Amino acid sequence: MFRPLEVFIGLRYTRAKRRNHxxxxxxxxxxxxxxxxxxxxxxxxxxxxxxxxxxxDRILGMVAHATIEGIxxxxxxxxxxxxxxxxxxxxxxxxxxxxxxAMLQGVRVSGAVVRGVVPDLEPxxxxxxxxxxQGKLDDLSAGKFGIVLGSELAMMLGVHVGDYVxxxxxxxxxxxxxxxxxxxxxxxxxxxxxxxxxxxxxLALVNMQDAQVLxxxxxxxxxxLRLDDMFQAYPVARELAQNLGQFYRVSDWMQGHSNxxxxxxxxxxxxxxxxxxxxxxxxxxxxxxxxxxxxDKETDxxxxxxxxxxxxxxxxxxxxxxxxxxxxGIALGLIFGVLLALNLPALAHWIERTFHVTFLSPDIYYxxxxxxxxxxxxxxxxxxxxxxxxxxATLYPAWRAAKTDPxxxxxxx
Length: 413
Fold this sequence. Notes:
By secondary structure, this protein is an alpha+beta fold. 51% of the residues lie in helices and 19% in strands. It contains 14 helices and 10 strands.
């Protein structure tokens, strides 16, 4: 005979016949419910991961993971400070910069942050060189006073590559005719587009030496760092501050953006909890399925009991049946969920082209595509959670089957 007996009987009950070999309707409904819940959970969590990744790439691609600043207007002995920072195994790149507010005048006028950078070092700490729409970052040669503008800032100023922009520093110089603002004419040599309004409409890049001339500085105002793990920025920043000494202060990106990313993480957790409850509801449909099965099989249960099968064995039989139904639903949900998460961007594009709809309008949203980032750990966690729900759902019906009284069940047979 097939062993163990509980598995044999549970498998036969799963294939309960109604003049055919199809799974009973109510078991099929339970399987579909669990599969839909698992599919939805995998897909939504993958989309949340995708948005989280896009935000990190766009924001942290321009924000330094950590920043070294001097206690004065400039950083003292900044080559030594860069050397000390590079000595840390956690630091992937370091680049000096000058940053000040300024007023820019083209066809129109607009305020912006003017950042002086070293073109050869800037790619080590930011991704601006990967987002150039026109021109190249290397076109910012020292002494030529070129400027690279964000796409929206260029549009607000009404200028294009080859045009000129006058930069007014928020400082005044004394002249025989009185105090006049410090200004310099720059040639537009490039335009970048990050996809975040903060940078596209409010940031202009120039060569660091040209920025020092404009603001009359004898060195950079800070050093930007990129780390191997941006979420370890705080302890790394503290370590660097101790190594650099009292003439420097070190800050990290979390001081300005931590609340934003914490809100995204919290939203992901809440969404996971809500969808887990949906999966739980689908899983607990097994309760009604198994209760109906127990009621239908009371005579069989009574006969098995009279043949010597123990209450624990009866309970195991119906737990096997419920777990099998749940496992089939979870397996289908995992298959469809993974396939949907992997192909969601392409599917969204197909729907937009076919039905002429737009999910995320680029005129409104900076992330105009539906992103999806599937994590294997999330899939495993979802599968385990759904399986636990299914296993718990089998306990009451199985216990009820084990409590069946053979005499009462066979009274009218």
